[in-house]
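One such shown below:

_____
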Amino acid sequence: MEGLVYTTRGGYLENMTAPETLTPATVARGQGARGRTRAADLDDVQQAATVALAVLRRALVEGTPVTREAITHEAAIVFATDPAEAVSRLDSQAEGLGISSLI
């Protein structure tokens, strides 16, 4: 099942981009939207899940409030980039799952 991602809607997706954003050339190169590879898109999904679970864990176990600042801080650490880029990548994954914008 490598390269497949299970969605909350009960199905599998082969790549993490909308079909209309792909061209035969990008598919042949194994790329998705924005020139990113499917592996890079999957990495972003996994990192987004890590951010969400880390913030949720802190809220449940440590009683830390869930705030935009906490999510931004965790995203910057997990995505290993500046906060604005990290939140943008996190937001992109959320929107891909049908969750309205986080930012």
Summary: The chain has one domain: 5-96. Strands lie at 5-6, 12-13.
